Each structure stands twice: as C-alpha cells, then as structure tokens.
Amino acid sequence: MLKLNLFISLLIFGSLIAVNDAARGSRRGKMTEAPSTTPKVESSEENSSEEETFKILVTHPEVPQEALDLMSRGCKLIMCESLPPNRTEILQKAKGVHGMFWGSHIPLDKEVLDVAGPQLKSISTMSAGIDYVDVEELKKRKIPLGHTPIVLSDAVADLAMGLMLSAARRFHEGRTKIDSSTWENYHIEWMWGQDVRDSTVGFFGFGSIGQAIAKRLKGFDIERVLYTTRRPIDKKLEKQFNAQKVEFHELLGQSDFLFIAAPLTPETEGIFNSTAFPKMKKTAVLINIARGPIVNQDDLYTALKTNQIFSAGIDVMNPEPLPANDKLLTLPNIVITPHIGSATKRTRTDMATIAAHNVLRGLVGEPMLSPAY
Ligand SMILES: *[C@@H]1O[C@H](CO)[C@@H](O)[C@H](O)[C@H]1NC(C)=O
Ligand SMILES: *[C@@H]1O[C@H](CO)[C@@H](O)[C@H](O)[C@H]1NC(C)=O
Ligand SMILES: *[C@@H]1O[C@H](CO)[C@@H](O)[C@H](O)[C@H]1NC(C)=O
C-alpha cells in the first residue's frame, strides 16, 4: 500500500504544474499534453493483488482519453458503457470502488454511496456546478469532492457574449424574417435592437464566470457593472471592473443587460419569477448561462411574450433537454443554445484532466486541485 501511495504521489507531482495553471484559470497552462515524468506501471515486477489497486468508477464512456490515461496508470478503471449514462449501470458497477469520476449530471446521492461501500474515499465531478450532488451526505461521510470550476469560465463567458449580442440584436428573429420572406428593411425602425455601449451590466453572481464576462465587456465601452453575490468581492476586482455590489431589486431595476452567473441553490431557485420580471427595464436583455431552474420558465415566457423585458439569451433551461414543442421556442425574442457553455475540445479535456487529478489526490489523502468543499 505504501509503495502504491508513493507511486501515485509521484504521478501527481509530475503533472501538477500544467494542471495547476489551468485550475487557476491561467492561459499559459496547456492541458492536453501527457505528463512527461510519469513512471510506468507496466515496469512493476510484482503482481499487485486486488486489494492493492485502487478501483475508480468512471460513469461516462466518453471521458477524454487524457484523463483515462492519467488514472489508469496507477488504478483499475471500471468503465460505464451506457449512453446516455444510465443510473442502473452506475449502481451495478459502483460496489467496492475507491474513487468515482462522476462524468454525468446523474444525481450523486446517498443510494450511490451506500451501494459503493465504506472504502469509497474520493469523488470528482467534471462540472463547475454540483447541484446534482448531495454534498451534505458526502461531508457526513468525510468523502472529499472535487469539481472543475474556473477552467471553463472563459468558454462559458465566450458563449455568454454570443447570447448577449444575439439577443440584443435579434439574431433569431432576424433569421425567421428571412425564412418567411418578411424582410422589410424599407422601414427605418425595422429590427431595432439594444446598444451595448454606455449600458449598465448586471451580474447575478459575480464569481469566476461573471468576471470573465466582465473582462470581455471592457472592449464594449459599457458604463458600469452592478452585481449581487453572497459575499462581496475583492475591492481590487471591484475597481478593475468598475463594479458595485447592489441589492437584488436594484440589480433588476438598473440593468440593461443582466447575466445570471450564480450557482443553483435553494436561495436562487426560481428567483427570476413574476415578482422579478416587472421590476426589470422593458429594454432589458436577460442572459442565463448558469442553471435553468434559477429562472421560473413560465414567468420568463410571460415576460417575453408581453414585452416586460426586451429579450433573453439562454444556454440553460428546465428541463434539459428542452422538448421540441416547448412554448419558449415559439417566441421571437429569445435565443436558445443547448447547454454548450463548456463544449469545446480544449475546455472539456482540461475539465476531465483536472477531475482525474482530483480523484487521484483524494485517493492518496492529498488536497484536491479544486475541492468543492
Ligand atoms: C503473477 O501472477 C500470475 C498469475 O496470477 C502468476 O502466474 C505469476 O507467477 C505472478 N508473478 C509474480 C512475480 O508473482
Ligand atoms: C440501464 O442499464 C441496465 C443494466 O446495465 C439495463 O438493464 C437497462 O436496460 C438500461 N436502461 C436504459 C434506459 O438504457
Ligand atoms: C419570487 O421569488 C422570490 C424570491 O425567492 C419570492 O420571495 C417571491 O415570493 C416569488 N414570487 C412569486 C410570485 O412566487
């Protein structure tokens, strides 16, 4: 056991530098390269018995190879094969594993932990949000949980900018005008949208993703940034973004563009509802790249339909996948993407690699790269 611990520590140390960069959101770290100083498990002359090899359950068959390579050097991987990921299969394969690479958004709850057994000692998700994890239950059992925030902030912020501009300038509606041959640009007021310049931009949640969006907005000559968070952010950051913490009702009342960039919690669930929308400007554009249930979707429909707000751009909704006959899709003034915020090769690979390091570190009792608690 000791020897194995040492081996894994070496393995982790060898590739930590690049991963630390990415975990911190540094642009220098390129994550797709395999660690170079890694010892090879094949060179081991001893047979390791079952007890000496950590078993890691990988709950998704398409986890990027870089992450699988990292974990399989020192551990035995138990792969789930179903697509979409299937809870029954996960439960069948969870028994006796030491680590879990939780590659889907299937609820990670008491039942899963019970089935796995008391030897389970390390879990990481491959996501920033962990609303599908029973964190309290993990804490109770002292099982460390990792997740992968920060590394996806740039990709999500890029998408948020796209949604903001396409909702403000009516990309979706414009396309339908072409499709229906109702292109009427002889009207001077045709298809007028909202300016970004000189606008007040609000952030519901101003963590790593919100700040990455604010950074991009610096090129758009906005007037100021307002935000709400559970905790005030660093004064230096406030200065850097010309940002001011306000109450929720002020955020609603003053924002020309309002980004939802907060985690889903009991406090945030449904907070954008029929009480909130009438407080917003009629010209406001709402962007949600966080979690669907933060918005009451029926109330959003009504707000858009009755022009309580100008438009919305959303990457997340409730439920996902959104049924093709959902009434939201009938509206001209909403732009919808299918939860693709982090869906780029580099970002997903980085997320997987960090999650793999989280699991490995948890197994040897070292602090995770990005612990969730
Ligand atoms: C390794 O295990 C195999 C099969 O269990 C056995 O035949 C072999 O002798 C073992 N080798 C060593 C070095 O223990
Ligand atoms: C899930 O996996 C189990 C066991 O592997 C299988 O019996 C079941 O049909 C699968 N369910 C779905 C919906 O694919
Ligand atoms: C909207 O959400 C807020 C905050 O959760 C709540 O106080 C309010 O009662 C809700 N409004 C409606 C109409 O449900």
Automatic annotation (TrEMBL):
Pfam families: 2-Hacid_dh, 2-Hacid_dh_C
Keywords from the UniProt entry: Oxidoreductase, Signal
Domain D-isomer specific 2-hydroxyacid dehydrogenase NAD-binding: 161-341
GO molecular function: glyoxylate reductase (NADPH) activity; hydroxypyruvate reductase (NADH) activity; NAD binding
Any one GO CC term of the record: cytosol
Signal peptide location: 1-22
Keyword match Signal: yes
Region: Disordered, residue numbers: 24-51
Residue ranges annotated for the D-isomer specific 2-hydroxyacid dehydrogenase catalytic domain, each copy included: 56-370
CDD domains per the UniProt record, alphabetical: GDH
Family membership: Belongs to the D-isomer specific 2-hydroxyacid dehydrogenase family.
Protein's name according to its UniProt entry: Glyoxylate reductase/hydroxypyruvate reductase isoform X1
Organism annotation: Musca domestica (House fly)
